[in-house]
Write a structure and sequence with these properties.
This protein is α+β, with helices and mostly antiparallel strands. It has helices spanning 2-19, 40-46, 138-142, and strands spanning 33-36, 54-57, 74-75, 80-84, 90-94, 108-110, 115-117, 124-126, 134-136, 148-153, 159-162.
Length: 164
């Protein structure tokens, strides 16, 4: 019985390995990412509080207005897209399109399809599921996914974003 279970497990793992698409989500140049939400008030005002909620953070453009950026704050290469996925978990991506790799070519959120879309190449990406995997366009053809950042609990129990 153990041999049969091992054989089935090996076959399943082999099929999974062959079936998986290769994803390159490290095309964006490494730039400082540090965005703390140090109090409940800051999180309530600027964070993402419900499933499928999202917000953009671009320090150089002071987006969102009023966010308490400091000298230590860093919002990645093209900015940060902070979302709450379908499971109500915060997830963060770089706003720069991995096909274009330009700090000022940023994905936007298509509220009807619940995807991120590049205005230049037209690529679309999952953002509320599947961690930035490409859905269509040149990104899908080349296997380029959005750069993901870690969302960690901060010192006071709130969140902070940092580079992986």
């Amino acid at each position: 019985m153990k041999r049969l279970i091992r054989a089935v497990l090996c076959i399943v793992l082999s099929l999974c390995a062959v079936a998986c698409d290769k994803l390159d989500n490290n095309r964006i140049p490494p730039v400082e990412v540090y965005l703390p939400f140090s109090t409940v008030g800051v999180w309530d005002a600027y964070g993402v509080t419900g499933a499928m909620d999202y917000r953009r953070f671009i320090k150089s453009d002071r987006i969102p207005g009023g966010y308490p950026y400091s000298a230590m704050s860093g919002t990645g290469f093209g900015g940060i897209l902070l979302v709450r996925d379908y499971l109500d978990t915060p997830v963060a991506y770089d706003l720069a399109c991995p096909v274009e790799v330009m700090y000022n070519v940023r994905v936007g959120v298509d509220d009807e399809q619940h995807l991120a879309r590049c205005p230049k190449c037209g690529s679309t990406y999952f953002i509320f599921e599947n961690y930035g995997h490409p859905v269509s366009g040149p990104a899908k053809e080349r296997g380029y996914g959005l750069e993901c950042y870690r969302v960690l609990p901060g010192d006071a129990g709130f969140y902070m974003l940092v580079r992986r």
